[in-house]
Amino acid sequence: MSVKILLLILAALPLPAASIHIYVANSDDNKISVIDPTTDRVSSEIPVSPNPHGIVPSPDGKRFYVSSESKDLLDVVDRKTLAIIGRVPLGQRPNNVAITPDGKQVYICIRAESWVDIVDTASLQRVKRVPVGKGPHNVYRTPDGLRMIATSMDENKLSVINVKSQEVEFEIPAGGVPRPLVIDANPDRSINRLFVQLSNLHGFAVIDWASRKVVGRVILPEAPAGARPLIPETFSHGMAISPDHKTLWVTSLLDNSVSVFSLPQLKRLQTIPVGRGPDWMTFTPDGTRCYVSNAGSNTVSSIDAVNFKELVKISVGKVPKRIITAD
């Protein structure tokens, strides 16, 4: 076989797993910790503005967009140099962020206001504010890329924004104060259900997307007597669906664990002890590892997602929360 043919074959192979990294925003710090999943160690750090809250990569892999909750900014990070190349002024207390599939707009929940800011990524200017109710906290892009779902903590609702019109298309009552949610999508990327964590609920609510109604609640295993969550009124904060869409993973701040449920049945399969104050989580693309940010112990738990076992706690920055996987 000639060298030229060999090079062509190698070029056609998928990228090695080493290109995947885990990024965690340390919310009481000024840095993003970067974890190499092949070693389960912090391989580098990205300096950002103080109190990073949300983080999202651009679809082309060239940038990160990171919200600073205390400085009211959106940091624009060049992923090649890990340098901040722009800062966009936002409303008060920017929280979670999401990006459109074409990478042209970033949506940011403005917690101390009542809207979602939209930033144009070409001009790095805020171009619109979309009213979504008081206390917007988290925002999620739907699997088909056509809508954004924003949670309003002070009005107990979800606002569904049409990306094309940049207006609220409809609202869904959450049945309580909405915290994190995950989208249970069908193979064609249409939405079946939403799983929504609520303040003072040790579990999550189930919302039927078609009827836009809460149709049930799932409760986590009973916590030890006298247990108190790291964050007041926050018994469960952080969920993720495995890449093969067979399991739903849910954190408990009352007993510092992660419970795994089967999909679509929502039958609990296992509960895994982790660090103090488990918050958000993310999977490697192959689904073999789950990483959980432990806000109360300044660590990230690496979990064997096949055998449901914590492998190691990785020390990161102060109060790690939002955590994502990116190549």
Q: Which properties best describe this structure?
A:
mainly beta; Methylamine Dehydrogenase, Chain H; 4-stranded antiparallel beta sheet; 28 strands; 3% helix; disordered N terminus
How does this model look, in words?
The protein folds into two domains: 18-46 and 176-327, YVTN repeat-like/Quinoprotein amine dehydrogenase (Methylamine Dehydrogenase, Chain H), CATH 2.130.10; 48-173, YVTN repeat-like/Quinoprotein amine dehydrogenase (Methylamine Dehydrogenase, Chain H, 7 Propeller). Strand 17 (191-198) and strand 18 (203-208) form a beta hairpin. 3% of the residues lie in helices and 54% in strands. The strands form seven sheets. Strands 3-2-1-28 form a four-stranded antiparallel sheet, with no helix packed on it. A four-stranded antiparallel sheet has the order 4-5-6-7, with no helix packed on it. A four-stranded antiparallel sheet has the order 8-9-10-11, with no helix packed on it. With 327 residues, the protein is mainly beta. The chain is globular. It has one helix at 3-12; strands at 21-26, 31-36, 41-47, 52-57, 63-68, 73-78, 83-89, 94-99, 105-110, 115-120, 125-131, 136-141, 147-152, 157-162, 167-173, 178-185, 191-198, 203-208, 213-219, 239-241, 247-252, 257-262, 268-273, 278-283, 289-294, 299-304, 309-315, 320-326. 43% of the residues are buried. The chain has one helix and 28 strands.
